[in-house]
């Protein structure tokens, strides 16, 4: 896949930033992990393996075992981009995760974040 530089960046390089953003607002690493697992279908052990292996964003999302169908309910703006209007499927998945972490950091209830 060509295009965006983020695709080749190791997920493990950005993961600590997701955690830091959430922790600054009183949330936990476990909650960040819960959001990632909900979105991708990975287990905690599989997430840990990808972080240790330095898996790229592209591979991390393309190899997700069960991308959550409720992800389509994620709407809104993140980094000035309306998530539901992102055309590139891989970039949309990345933006979904960005939006979920934003919602977590803004103090939304986990049930609402996970679209229950």
From TrEMBL:
**Gene3D superfamilies xref list:** uncharacterized protein sp1917 domain (1.10.8.290)
InterPro entries, alphabetically? SP1917_dom_sf, UCP033199
Q: Which species is this record about?
A: Arenimonas fontis
Name-wise, this protein is DUF2200 domain-containing protein
At the top level, the lineage of the source is Bacteria
């Amino acid at each position: 896949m060509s295009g965006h530089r983020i695709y080749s960046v190791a997920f493990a390089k950005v993961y600590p930033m997701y955690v830091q953003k959430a922790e600054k607002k009183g949330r936990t690493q476990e909650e960040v992990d819960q959001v990632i697992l909900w979105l991708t279908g990975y287990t905690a052990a599989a997430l840990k393996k990808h972080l240790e292996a330095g898996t790229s964003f592209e591979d991390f999302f393309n190899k997700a075992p069960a991308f959550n169908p409720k992800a389509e309910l994620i709407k809104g703006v993140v980094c000035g981009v309306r998530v539901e209007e992102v055309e590139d499927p891989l970039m949309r998945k990345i933006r979904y995760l960005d939006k979920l972490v934003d919602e977590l950091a803004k103090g939304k209830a986990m049930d609402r974040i996970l679209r229950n």
